[in-house]
Design goal:
By secondary structure, this protein is mostly helical. It has a two-stranded antiparallel ribbon. Strand 1 and strand 2 form a beta hairpin. It contains 31 helices and two strands. It starts with a strand and ends with a helix.
């Protein structure tokens, strides 16, 4: 149950999760048998995953290929998806028609086929039997139908276009011409090749599963509410306090959930009404929640599950991705926080009413319970060197133990734990189908040579300079990401865009974080802006106005990726030619630039600023972060920008103090 700052019941957490997943399209079974079947399979998905991660099969002397476990996992995903989600919105939501039972059994079969026959398949990988051709074809078609039901037509159309390209590639002209592949080899490649669907399913079945479980434990056992209360108790007493509390709370919860839309519903039902009561307009409140919820995926150490996909794709330790993402995430939220502070000062928005602020000492009585899980996660990852999957599982156990110390949780521990497992299984359907779809795109891109062709197309823009190339890549990423879940959006652009940037000399980590940032920005970038459309009914505002205000608040997110491509030291990358002092200097300068950017956007420092002053501040911000690769005398320009920024802030403060003293003197003379 979610509660607001006054402990008023708002809505059951399960209902919020259903709304966030579009659960109005899911079946509410009338008969017991299909409901028992589906619920049991949902429960088995995380249970089987935990057993595999712990290596229990080895304890019993069973030898199991990773691909066999992935096959079992795929069977557990494809079997319930057709029972749980009707074919159309007009289909029965109470009874399961015969054709959905058939599709469910076929989904179970194509997964179990890998479980039982993979040892034989690996011995005859290149020889595609008629049986394997049929199974692989059915598997791809089932995933496409699952994509249509779970995610809608947008991603299905994208997959269909790529699949068609797999057949038509040798007949297309120019740079779009690709390698010819027979149908049996094509579907076999998509089904079992490590460079296609298999790699994406492996991510879902291990890292994705464990960290979704970790997030569900925090959500169901009250960890998310604790994080929210801590944020409001600390920041509620300052100007614009509700918005600042919303930023911190939504960022922490969003890092765990990895789903911006879900996060808007989970935290927005509390934060948006509080912001409106404090003086923020409906559109302002909706925009703040949308940007804060989206940015949760940028915050280490969890970052949804994107960090693990980046690590897997680049073949680098997960800890390296976490370090690289740290400074950009700080810049994102610092700028957002400063903008809200300046906006509140400009509009005269004060603190949260005292009775609305959770008492810190009361919050901390339970607030410390959320610390051990994150400490454990960092400890096992960084100090013990365990894999992300094992570390996430251990952190989940720690979260379960400590959060169960709450009396209200302990009293219904078994029921909550069952709900956690079942809801984890439900969430894994969407994530797995998304990653499987991305795997199909990845496979088509690899086997036809499309990735190379896209690189050639982007290379043509490189003739006009790196900036033009990056700008075009950013546009492509936003367009590909519109309307898609964030994991799907990143997985898609990581296959299509990131390799081209790397080929043209961009640091691999910078390239992947660049496309990651722009793929998730579509969550609050009009015209789709799914977060804004989700926040609009809660805020009772206009989704498009919320979207355009979100773009203002999230402006730094559009600029930071360009910044760390030109200055990879911001990603804390080891570069022999860059000293730590230079790296620290770049970080400090970038944070100052964020402050100047916030001043520019909001037009306020100690008082309202004219358009000319805002333009001057913007120029100073650009001068501060001008990289050497663009301008030969960039260091001189950086110094000018720094001195100019200090002088501007100092002069504005002196003028403000002088004006304030004059006002006080005038009041005393009147009295």
């Amino acid at each position: 149950m979610k509660v607001d700052a006054n402990n008023q019941k708002i809505v059951p957490l399960e209902e919020v999760r259903e709304k966030s997943s579009g659960n109005d399209k899911y079946r509410m079974f009338k008969g017991r048998f299909p409901k028992i079947v589906v619920t049991t399979i949902f429960f088995l998905i995380p249970l089987v995953g935990i057993m595999y991660v712990l290596g229990l099969h080895q304890t019993f002397g069973l030898t199991l290929y990773a691909e066999q476990y992935i096959g079992l996992f795929l069977a557990l995903i494809l079997c319930p998806v057709f029972l749980y989600i009707p074919a159309t919105k007009h289909s029965s939501k109470e009874k399961v028609p015969w054709y959905d039972w058939v599709l469910s059994v076929l989904g179970l079969y194509v997964g179990l086929y890998l479980l039982f026959y993979y040892p034989d398949i690996i011995m005859r990988m290149t020889y595609v039997s008629t049986e394997r051709f049929l199974v692989s074809t059915i598997c791809v078609l089932l995933i496409m139908e699952a994509v249509r039901r779970v995610l809608g037509p947008v991603l299905l159309i994208i997959i269909a276009v790529f699949l068609s390209y797999g057949f038509l590639a040798p007949y297309l002209p120019g740079v779009f011409r690709g390698s010819k592949t027979s149908p049996d080899q094509l579907f076999n490649y998509l089904y079992i090749d490590p460079s296609s669907m298999m790699s994406m399913l492996n991510l879902a079945a291990t890292i994705g599963l464990i960290f979704i479980l970790f997030g569900q434990i925090l959500l169901y056992f009250g960890g998310a509410n604790i994080l929210n209360d801590v944020a409001f108790s600390i920041f509620g007493r300052f100007r614009g306090g509700p918005a600042k509390g919303a930023i911190v709370g939504s960022s922490l919860v969003g890092s765990v959930t990895g789903n911006p839309v879900s996060n808007v519903l989970l935290t927005g039902t509390v934060t948006i009404p509080l912001m409106k009561k404090s003086g923020f307009s409906a559109n302002q409140a909706g925009a703040i929640e949308s940007v804060a919820s989206t940015g949760g995926q940028l915050i280490p150490p969890v970052m949804g599950i994107a960090a693990f996909i980046i690590a897997e794709t680049l073949g680098v330790p997960y800890t390296e991705v976490v370090l690289a993402a740290l400074v950009p995430a700080i810049m994102y939220y610092l700028c957002l926080f400063l903008q809200i502070d300046l906006f509140s000062g400009r509009e005269g928005i004060t603190r949260l009413p005292k009775e609305k602020i959770p008492v810190l000492r009361h919050v901390l009585k339970k607030g410390w319970l959320v610390i051990p899980p994150f400490v454990a996660l960092v400890y096992f990852l960084f100090f013990q060197g365990y894999t992300a999957t094992v570390s996430g599982l251990y952190a989940s156990v720690v979260a379960l133990i400590f959060l169960a110390l709450q009396r209200e949780v302990f009293q219904k521990l078994f029921k909550l734990l069952c709900d956690v497992f079942v809801d984890t299984g439900k969430m894994m359907i969407e994530i797995t189908i998304v990653l499987a779809a991305a795997g199909i795109v990845m496979g088509i891109t690899g086997i036809t040579g499309l990735g190379f062709n896209i690189g050639v197309i982007l290379a043509s823009f490189a003739e006009y300079g790196l900036f033009v190339l990056l700008a075009m890549s950013a546009i492509v990423c936003i367009l590909l990401g519109m309307g898609l879940p964030s994991v799907a959006a990143y997985a898609l652009v990581a296959v299509l865009v990131a390799p081209s940037l790397i080929e043209l000399g961009v640091d691999p980590m910078a390239a992947h974080l660049f496309v990651f940032y722009f793929s998730i920005l579509s969550n609050f970038t009009p015209p789709v802006a799914v977060c804004c459309f989700t926040a609009a009914p809660i805020a009772k505002g206009d989704p498009y106005k919320i979207g355009f205000r979100s773009m203002q608040l999230g402006l730094v997110a559009y600029l930071v990726p360009f910044l760390f491509v030109y200055a990879p030291e911001l990603l804390l990358r080891y570069e022999p030619i860059v000293s730590w002092s230079e790296t620290i200097g770049s970080i400090i300068v970038s944070l100052i630039a964020c402050y100047l950017l916030a001043i520019t956007v909001e037009g306020f420092l100690f008082r309202r600023l004219s358009v000319i002053k805002r333009g001057a501040v913007a120029i100073l911000a650009i001068c501060l972060v001008m990289p050497p690769s663009i301008l030969e005398y960039s260091l001189f320009v950086n110094i000018i920008g720094f001195i100019g920024a200090v002088l501007f802030i100092l002069l504005e403060w002196l003028f403000y103090k002088k004006t304030d003293l004059a006002i006080q003197s005038s009041k005393r003379s009147i009295m």
